[in-house]
TrEMBL record, chains A, B:
Residues 422-443 are annotated as: Disordered. Its cofactor is Mg(2+). One of its GO terms (molecular function) is sphingomyelin phosphodiesterase activity. One of its GO terms (cellular component) is membrane. GO terms for biological process: sphingolipid metabolic process. SUPFAM superfamilies: DNase I-like. Keywords: Hydrolase, Lipid metabolism, Magnesium, Membrane, Metal-binding, Sphingolipid metabolism, Transmembrane, Transmembrane helix. This is Sphingomyelin phosphodiesterase 2. Belongs to the neutral sphingomyelinase family. The keyword Membrane applies. Its main location: membrane. The keyword Phosphoprotein does not apply. Pfam families: Exo_endo_phos.
Length: 443, 443
């Protein structure tokens, strides 16, 4: 806190890659991370992939003096992996689990078991209320054929909803995390345009770190260079985003990333680079009311609204692709289940033959008979579970699509409030609802 | 809208009991509900248990003129069952699914499949921003031995969190729904004390309806009187709650419930009674800022804070009971799984005997052998799925417990700001954390 008018806040975000027994040098890296955090004394530390609570507790013990306040967000089977450490008292926390997060049978990808979520902590920095968010979205395993794209888009949609709706009372908003999206990816644009969050890397006055702010780089010894292709040097998928309020202006004084190695250590903190940013908060004397602030988006230029309409429409299209895919998968599961049932009936019919023609010997070898029955039951059980799962996926995708359609309608309605500046692109893309929309009667 | 200074809003909440083919007279009752809504023209209609989207769509068609704006919240396997119809444009919607909601194997109770949630819609009523919430919590099947109590308490906890954090920018807040809790139940007290929501039944100037505002009554022909025992006449479990803001005062002019029958109809709208309330909104000329409003709880009397500490502590105790229960269930699943595995190994050992002593005849009858193997696999699969499920339940309960501990710490810290009025009961009940609390270093 440099002077009475401005407050400085240093924030760190790091994906710790903390899978016990699987991540390389996990224990040693946690020791390094703990040591660094203790020394650097960032105001707010946002960690992802802290999969084991034991590791969180050992970090908490180590940081008891430098960061007396902390929270570990629990969700899913093995946890959300999200943790926050703070110099300032945490008054309140809240967790929102994304409705979609991969598939349980893709166990080698493991995302489903992680229960991905966005964690929120409310802290007071001086007299200011800060809403701090930490998140980790579904990984991208293959950019060319990314079957998880609709899931990630829905996660980005829910993330922006959560931040937008929970931050109305906050003087400043900070989001840190591994978004698993490139800077210009759909979900990223959706998040930034809708919430008004600014990217610390783009806003910083001084930057010291990897080329283009990359956070997954070829120079990191834990990175398999082949997996980065076609981005030979690396990609930027970890972010610190921020925004102020009508009461608070916020500036990014500096930003830095680690560069694939840590001086005097044999390996880096993680396979991701750590991000550090220095924010400067300046409070206004005149204030607006909360409601004014919430309706601020109404006052923003028509151009911005039109861009937002385009982005949400693009997201809707992506979600629809996911919907068709989920419908196809559910259909396949149903068909396989019906075939399993038919096989079972066939078998029962065969079994009934000697029973009907009394005394006739069973023509079917017993071993095969039992194996076939077991197979039928296995098919029926698996397809039943898959059917349930795909139905839930469908409901979540439909829910997001409905919300997006409603949002597009509402944004277009607002656009009509700008008679002079009504842009073409917003009109060219009306909400393409298959069912009658609640928004149409007046349109 | 009677005069220029005050705005009137009529709200209806109804649990529709809309399980197609299972609920009695489902189609006819929907026709009655649609007719009534069309005629009465409530500003906001909050429906629960609209399990089929087809029924929602047919209602939407019927109400196209009276309620042009609507939203159906999708979640879980068969949907959240929540729907909202509005005279005022819905600008935005958001859905929060509760992290706990019963057990999938309790299929006859069905709650798990419903994907219980709280839905939010942002509407503009004149110049005011209204956040309207609709929810339906887990049912209570046996009050004496309610195994779902920890789940319902966690749902109430998450409901209050969701409302508190998303309503900072709203001028008025309305919550309607089937809370499945009696007026003085823990979850209900938690919800009302933490959010400051007021109960329309308790605040109304005029009431016309069932005795004690009951919404599940013995006089309703769809109600099994035996299930109501020991509450012979009925219980009050459906609510309309509301609160204003620093900008808006809100008054309840009247409230009514249906009384177990509908004039000129052979049966009532549902097994629950419908609630209608008339709210009057009055806006201030002077306004506070959003941040002032959010920190308003800080200014409330120490007594209220102490009560809140007590309630949250009570909720924590209940969640801990749930934790022990879930731990026990997971332990049982693990033990059964280990026994299944042991049985499988035993069988394999028996099978290996003739293979090791070449030529010896298999001593074990083949049929039993295969049946036993199938049993082993079934046990292993079931216990594995149960283990995964109980682990997720444990994580969710632990997460809620952590948040409650943090909240109690923060509330106690605020209480210390009232040196004169520090009450005894708040001090007698410190947070009883088994693990070192993040809040203790300064305490």
């Amino acid at each position: 806190m440099a002077n009475t008018d401005s407050v400085k806040v240093r924030v760190l975000s790091l994906n710790c890659w903390g899978i016990r027994y699987l991540s390389k040098h996990c224990r040693q890296r946690y020791a390094m991370i703990g040591h660094m955090l203790c020394k650097e004394e960032h105001d707010i530390v946002l960690l992802q992939e802290v999969w084991s609570e034991k590791d969180y507790l050992s970090l908490k013990k180590k940081l008891a003096c430098s960061h007396p306040y902390s929270h570990y967000f629990k969700s899913g089977v093995i946890g959300s992996g999200l943790a926050i450490f703070s110099v300032h008292r945490i008054h309140d926390t809240f967790l929102f689990r994304y409705s979609l997060n991969g598939y349980p049978y893709m166990a080698h990808h493991g995302d489903w078991f992680g229960g991905k979520a966005v964690g929120m902590a409310v802290l007071n920095i001086g007299s200011l209320t800060a809403n701090v968010y930490v998140t980790h979205l579904h990984a991208e395993y293959c950019r060319d054929k990314d079957s998880y794209l609709p899931h990630r888009v829905v996660q980005a949609w829910e993330l922006q909803q959560f931040i937008r709706h929970t931050s109305a009372g906050a003087d400043l908003v900070i989001l840190g995390g591994d978004l698993n999206m490139h800077p210009q990816d759909l979900g990223n644009r959706l998040l930034r345009s809708y919430t008004g969050l600014q990217d610390a890397y783009l806003e910083t006055a001084n930057f010291d770190g990897c080329e283009d702010g990359m956070t997954l780089i070829a120079d990191n010894p834990f990175i398999n260079k082949k997996e980065l292709r076609p981005f030979e040097n690396g990609i930027r998928i970890d972010y610190i985003l921020f925004k102020g309020s009508s009461k608070t202006d916020i500036y990014c004084d500096f930003m830095s990333t680690t560069k694939g190695s840590v001086p005097n250590h044999p390996f880096p903190y993680s396979d991701h680079e750590a991000l550090t940013t220095g924010l400067r908060l300046e409070t206004h004397t005149q204030t607006e009311t909360g409601s004014d602030r919430q309706t601020k988006i109404q006052d923003s230029a028509a151009g911005k609204l039109a861009v937002l309409v385009d982005i949400v429409t693009e997201a809707r299209t992506e979600v629809k692709v996911g919907l068709h895919c989920a419908e196809r998968m559910r259909y396949t599961a149903t068909r396989t289940g019906v075939m399993g049932l038919a096989l079972l009936f066939l078998e029962l019919a065969i079994a009934a033959v000697p029973w009907l023609a009394l005394g006739t010997e069973q023509p079917f070898p017993r071993t095969s008979f039992y194996l076939l029955a077991a197979l039928c039951f296995a098919i029926l059980l698996t397809t039943f579970l898959l059917y349930i799962f795909y139905t839930m996926e469908l409901k979540a995708l439909q829910g997001a699509e409905d919300q997006m359609r409603l949002a597009v309608g509402s944004l277009q309605e607002k656009l009509r409030g700008f008679p002079l500046a009504q842009p073409h692109n917003a009109q060219q893309r009306p909400p393409e609802g298959h069912e009658p929309s609640a928004l149409t009667p007046e349109e």
